[in-house]
Structure formats: C-alpha cells, structure tokens
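Task: complex structure prediction.
Instruction: return structure tokens for all chains below.
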Amino acid sequence: MANRFAQFPILKHLVRWLILIIPVSVTIGSIVALFLWLLHQATGLRFQYPWLLFLLPLAGIAIHLIYKTIGRSSEKGNNLIIDEIHEPGGGIPGWMAPVILVCTVITHLFGGSAGREGTAVQIGGSIAQIFGKLLRLNADDTKIILTSGVAAGFGAVFGTPLAGTIFAAEVLSVGRIQYTSLLPCLFAAIIGDATVTAWGIHHTTYHIGVTAGVQELIPGYISPAFSLLIKVVPAAIAFGLAACLFSVMVHTLRNLFLKLIRTSWLIPVAGGLIIILLTFITGSTDYLGLGVDPQYAGSVTISSSFKAGGADTWSWLWKTVYTTITLSSGFKGGEVTPLFYIGATLGNTLSGILDAPAGLFAALGFIAVFAGATNTPLACTIMGVELFGSEYMHLFAAACFIAYFFSGHSGIYSSQKIAVPKI
Amino acid sequence: MANRFAQFPILKHLVRWLILIIPVSVTIGSIVALFLWLLHQATGLRFQYPWLLFLLPLAGIAIHLIYKTIGRSSEKGNNLIIDEIHEPGGGIPGWMAPVILVCTVITHLFGGSAGREGTAVQIGGSIAQIFGKLLRLNADDTKIILTSGVAAGFGAVFGTPLAGTIFAAEVLSVGRIQYTSLLPCLFAAIIGDATVTAWGIHHTTYHIGVTAGVQELIPGYISPAFSLLIKVVPAAIAFGLAACLFSVMVHTLRNLFLKLIRTSWLIPVAGGLIIILLTFITGSTDYLGLGVDPQYAGSVTISSSFKAGGADTWSWLWKTVYTTITLSSGFKGGEVTPLFYIGATLGNTLSGILDAPAGLFAALGFIAVFAGATNTPLACTIMGVELFGSEYMHLFAAACFIAYFFSGHSGIYSSQKIAVPKI
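Output:
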C-alpha cells in the first residue's frame, strides 16, 4: 500500500499531459494525413504509368543516397524509436520524419512492396522528440512523449486509436504490458486520428460479411460457434508460422544481401531488379505497393480477400517474397500493411481448405499475422474490434494469441526486449 | 533472440492445455450455473418474504460458524487465490467452493448487500486446485491452472469470457500484464461461459440507448465526439475517487469492527443490525442484495440507471455504505456487482450534472468504478465492449484508465502486488 492520497500528483500529471499532448498529436496527425494523401497520389500515378516500375532500381539508389547524406542514424527506423524509449540516449534525428516520408513515397511510386506503419511510427516518434527537446523534458517524460508519439502515429495511419495506444505499450517488450504512459498515449492516439479525419482523409473499411451459413462440425453435438473456434485453432497456427517465416526471411535476406553485394548502393538496385523479374514471373502487378487499392477489376487486394475466391492460393507467399526483398534491400515503408495483406490472403486460402467463411478468416489473418510478427496480440485483438466490430472478438483474441505463441521469439523489431519468454 | 524453432514445445503446450482445461472449465461453468440459479431463487424469496431481512443478524452468525468450523483458511477468499498463484504454498482448501457458495446464497437470501464475482472466482480457483492435485501438476503448471480457474469463474458469472481472461492476467499485479497463461485462460473462460449458457442460464443485458441528441460544447467548433470525451474526464475522475472511497471504507470498517467488538461472532450480528437500521432510515429495500433484479416497478437497479431519472442522487453513496458494512462484517459474496451498481448510479447522477446521455454515463461508471477498485482497466474496457458493444470503446478505455489512476494504490484485493507504481 503506497501513499493513499496520491490523487493530486495524478491530477497534475493528467492535466499536464492532456495539454502537452494536443500540439504534439495535432502535428503528427497532420503530417500523417499529408503522408496518406501523398501515398494515394503515388499509387494512382503508378497505376497510370506502369513503366514507373522499371525505374525501381534507380529509386533504390536515390533512397540509399538520401539515407547516406541526410538520414544517417535514422536508417535504424522503428528500432531506433524503441531503443530511445527503453533508454533515452543519442536522440532521434529531427530529419527522420521528412526523410522517411519522402523515401516511403518514392518506394510506393515505383512499385516497391511495403507498408506505411513504419513511416507513421517514425513520424510520430521524431515529432514527439522535437517537442520533448523544446519542452526540456527529463528522461522519464521523454519516454512518455515518445511512446505517445508512436501511439499517435499508429492510431492516425490506420484509424484505430485504441489499437495504437495498446500497440505503443505492447511493442516495447515481448510478453508484458506496462501502464505508465497509457493515458497520454490514448489522448495522443485519439487526437491524432481525429486530426487525420479533420483533414478529410478516410480509411478503407472492410466487411466480414454474413457467416450465417456456418456448417456444424458434428451436427447436433457441437454448436456452430464451437465449430468455428475449432477451425480457428489450425488457421491461427498457420498465421503464426507465416509471421515467423516473414521475420526470418527479412533478417536472412538482409544478411544475405550484405554478404553477397559489397558495394552498398548496388543492394537496392539488385532488390529493384528482383522485384521487376518477379513481376514478369508472376505476370501480375498485384503484389507491388500497398495492396489496398485495386489496379484493375479483379486485382487481389486486402479488400478482395474478404470474399470467397478473392485471392489466389499462393498470394500470401508471393506477397511475403515481394515485401521481404523490398524491405531487406533498403526500400522504405513498413511491414504492417503487407502483413495485413499476407494474413488476409492466407485466411482466404485457409477458409477454402477448412470450409469456413472467407470474410471472417481473412479478418482473422489480417490481425493475427501482424500480431505474430510484432508480438502485439492485445493491440491486434483490439484493432480487430475497431476495424470489424465486436461480434467475433473472442475469435480475434484466440487467433492473435495463438499466432503470437507460434511466431517464435524473432519478431520484426530486433530492439524489442524479451520481458517474459513465450513458454 | 531465443531459440527460433520453439514451435514444437508450444504446440505440445497448446494441445495439452486445450485438453486439460475442458473438464476443469466445464465443472466450473456448471457450478457457477448452479450458483447463479440459486442466487436468483434466493433473491426471489427475499422479494416474496421481506421479513427475511430481520433474520440477517442470525444469518451472519451461521456464516461465521461455517467459516470457523469448515471454512477456516478459505476465509481469506480471493486474496488466498491470488497468493497461491503468486507463490503456490499451503494450497486452496477443497471446501472453499461449497462453503463460499452456500454462504453467498445465505447472504443474499437475508438481504446482505454483496456481489457474486468473489464467489465465482473462488469456485474457479478451488476447482482448478482440485484438478491440479489430481493431475499432479508442478508449481508452474499449478499457477496456470489456477489462473485459468479464475478466468473461467469470472467469465462464466458475468458472461464475458474475454474480460475474464484479461481480468485473471491483470488482477495479480498492479500496472502490468503477463502473457504466459493467456491461452489456457481464454479457452477456460470461453468454455466456462458456454457451459453456463448450455445450462439455460442467461445474463442481464444492458442498453446504452441512443445518444444522438448529444449537445455540442461550443457549437461549430468542437465536434460532439470531443464534447463527450471532455465530459468523460471529470466523470472518470469521480469514478476513480468512488472506487478509492469503497476500498478505503472496506479496509477501515473491517479494522473498526475488530477493534470495537471483541467477540468475533457478534461482528456479523452488528453488521446485520446496521443494515436493518439503514433500511428503515432510507425507507428503501433497493440497496439490499445484488441490485440487478427490481423488487417493484420503479426500484433503483443497475438496469434502471441506464435511463435518465432511473437512480437517486445519492444511490451510489448508499450502496457504498450498505456493501462495505455487509462485507466488512463477515458476510460473503464479492464486491463487483455492487461496484457495477455504484458506478452505474453515480454515472446516472453525473449525467444530469454534466448534461450527458444517462445510458452512456451509467455504462462508463459500471466498468470504471470496478476498474479503479480492482486495478484492472484493460479487462474492464473489454468487458464494456462485451456488454455494451464497440461503438463507445474509446470512451470506455478513457474512463477505465482515468479511474484506474485516480483510485490510488489501495484496491480491494490486498494480495495484489504493485508491479509498477501508478505514477
């Protein structure tokens, strides 16, 4: 039992952070809104001028040069933010936000397969760091403002403020959540998300569709709800293994590129050429870019995976290959939207094998592969509720936690500490 | 980076616990179903024969004798379960389940103001302990099965399996969640809840109602959603302080009774007499029992608080007094349903002061006072979604976390460890 009358310092803490966080999260939300708008324009241009893909190797050199000259330590990306929250040290360079924003838009304009959450998290972290320095915050407060910046960036880019809040608290260490900065994070994420909406940017909405016709596994004995739960278990194991494959491939390919190609600016050139080659092999442009907007009617996108037949059997594997090559060769963006894509298309494929509703299993894959790769099962369960409603919340939780356990200890963020081993 | 190929032991762990947990949670669910049915019968009898209240002091003596003779160490209740999970030691007596069940039903039959989650958690913990001994589990596995028992009991008694899962993980320590036993807990809670439903027991449903007519705070400048959020902050502070008051009163009254009354069996007699006296003072039987079912049309219940005018200004304070006296003088049940009642009626009162929708603020109080008193803000946010849907999830989170910070460090469970101080 600590001091019983701790309410006054808590009130001061609450009011102080409520006021501090407003300018920080409005700024982050505005820059994320600009980023989402630019991303939409870049994707539109690529659809209009498909030959832009052939310039991908050159784009890689440009990104390489930007990081060599201006970016420098910000190359470490999300891991630098996580490191700085664990132990504030060298600081996050002020250039990080514009550099990652420009390089991500370049990656998407020329057809790299990447995401956007890395960019949003880095925008959030570096803007928060600038405010933290201006306000001369001490080490503890710097941790809080950086974590809030991550929450605001994540919440704003996906339109899921509560998932952003829990993500920021959950991503720092495997197997543990701490509550210290949750309130500033929540306010930051809500304000960041509201700012994006105020700028007129809207997020894609997904629909699970009706699952009324679910088959009973053993008619009369096991209820449809339990039949579904039993089918979720093997699917969630597959989602966890897919997350594991993704993490292992990113790490392995990065080391392989470094070992095979000694001239560092040639690495993105090689990466770009492989992506072009893959596009000829698959004969499809569906695995380039974000995978959210369709290039033509019948494209495999995240949305199309919510309908039976909306994805090919191996779409998830192709997207894994495209994205791990794009990111490990130095292009920028993030992993999460591709992880959504991999999960949704794998869910679509599994729904056929397991005789389960495609929309529901695409939704489960969407959140569970991400949960496994980033070790954030609670944030992903909540993201499921924010994106798809609460009807299937228990299945969301089961899928995310099973995937979390089956993804192994090597997530995509190498700076994540292992607080409690998974087993 | 620990071992990358840890998937096989994890698969073994998953399958083993999936199988182990079925008999445990079906048993817990069945006993909880019996308990809920008995509680309903007891409440019905008390409504039919109001003179039963006058026997409350005698009922207190009976409960006292049962614990002196059979119950013994199980008197420590929920704290004993928490202690055993932190450090398996003397074990939980097998008698705990029937003893707490009978004593809770006695408390409710004669009009004590108490809850039911304590009973469900103790049924869960002691049944799990029995299975753990039968299966000769080691210390680590005993922790997992006990935590799962708590999750199953809590999930089953309120019909909120995911909240039960997170509650079991969250209640052990303040300010931290660990993931180790989350999967067995989730399965236990889902099966426990499904078992209660299979026995034909249904839970009360609550409706927030339409909040379409929310007033803008500064018309044209601040959107209705933000106006609501701004009104939630002071309300949530009040919920946190109400939780603090409850915890402090339980601890203080318990010590006061022990100090003033040296003959221990006279303590419940005094408690029972005070409850009878209070009922004459207030002229109302609304604050006796659970507060879920209405005794007559116009009773103040949890459900009635969801409508404007459905609670009196000081209902929350009366319920606080009734319940803290009932529990601190040795009657049995639990704190959570009274905390729901206190929160919902306080939310109703505050909605009038703040010009906010009564249903929404009753719902916020329902979960937030409980979050503050037990230090489980995440479980309560999720409970909000399970009971009231996901539309207001962000407000649920804001209310629960603010109440958690403002409730101080003295929750109702003295065995809870403080992992991370709140501030």
